[in-house]
Amino acid sequence: MSHITTYSMIGTCWSHPSERNMACRSILHDFKEMKWKEFRALVSGLSSETPLGRIIQIRSEDDPKMLESFSPGQHKIRNEWRNKRAKERTQEELDAFLKEMQQAFSEW
C-alpha cells in the first residue's frame, strides 16, 4: 500500500469509526505495533485536506489572527484538546513552569 493510500485510509478510519472495515482494522492494528518515530513521520505527512489533518491543524493552531477566524466548532475542538492536555500535566511540570515564569518576571 502506498503512503498516499495509507494517509487516505488513516483519515477515513480515524474520522469515521463506524465505517471501520477490515482494511481499517488492519491499519489500526499496524499503528499499535508502530514505533512513535515512525508514526509521527507518517502523521506529519498528512495534508490539512484530510479530516485527521484538519483536526491536527485546529488543535495545534496558536496564531491569534487565525484563531479569530475559527468557527465555534473549531474553537470547541481546540479548547477540548487544550483542556485535556492541561489535565495531563504533572505537578512537577506545573511547578517548573511557574518557576520559569517567576524568573522571567523577576528580570523585569
Description:
The protein has about 110 residues and is mainly alpha-helical. It is about 75% helix and about 0% strand. The chain has helices at about 5-15, 20-35, 35-45, 50-60, 65-70, 70-85, 90-105. Helix 1 (about 5-15) crosses helix 2 (about 20-35). The longest helix is centred in the last third of the chain and has 16 residues, at about 70-85. It is extended and about 60 Å long. The model is unreliable at about 1-5 (pLDDT under 50).
Q: What features would you highlight for this structure?
A:
mainly alpha; disordered N terminus; extended
What structural class do you assign from the helix and strand content? mainly alpha
- Spans of at least 5 consecutive residues whose pLDDT stays below 50 are 1-7
- Average of per-residue pLDDT values: 76
According to DSSP, the number of beta strands is 0
The biggest sheet, with number of strands, parallel, antiparallel or mixed sense and barrel status, is:
none
End-to-end gap? 56 Å
Q: How many H/I helical runs?
A: 7
Order of helices and strands: HHHHHHH
Whole-angstrom Rg: 18 Å
Strand coverage percent? under 5%
Classify the helix fraction into a percent range.
over 70%
Secondary-structure blueprint:
Blueprint: H1 3-15, H2 22-33, H3 36-44, H4 51-60, H5 64-68, H6 72-87, H7 91-106
Helix pairs in contact: 1-2, 4-6
Task: Write a compact overview of the structure shown.
By secondary structure, the chain is mainly α.
